[in-house]
Amino acid sequence: MALSLKYVVLGMVVERPAYGYELYNRVETLLPFYNYTASAVYPALDRLEGAGLIEPAGAKERRGGVRGNPRVMYSATPAGVTRLETWMYAPTAPEKSRDVLLAKLAIARAQDVPRLLEMARNQEAQVRRQLGGLQEAPRAAWTGQGRVPLPLVGAALARSSEARRLAAAIESLQEIREALEHELRGAPPPRR
Description:
This protein has 192 residues and is mainly alpha-helical. Helices cover 61% and strands 7% of the residues. It folds into 2 domains: 1-90, Arc Repressor Mutant, subunit A; 91-192.
């Protein structure tokens, strides 16, 4: 899985303080296709707290009297807000751009939209250049005369597979870009 849950959880805590299970429910609602379990949220909270990016807010509550685990409300520290903004505006490696942009979109605030739109446009252009370079690469010599060496067949199939992956990434980035453009204009995104 290409997406770090840590920043999604941090973004949610920056938005408003919350309990761990509430954060899990919000992750499940905003990013259901990642199939995170509740048990994945708690280690992310521990890492964020250990790094000083979030902190317990108020006293720990116990559910169900003396039995049951204590519930902890978490809030963001100033360092957590700064780290989230740094991550939010940081460029993303092309191979992770779709997943990371979707995560950023899930926790974005209105003031984040212009910069996220710029990132989406830049990443789409970068992936288009990669695809163009791949399509310009020399093709295997399919002469039809005799046997084609297996390494050439393998290289051609690898290029073809990579071209399909890049084309799918471009389509996803276009959808993200369109949604951000519509958000910026205050209009609902087009239905696909």
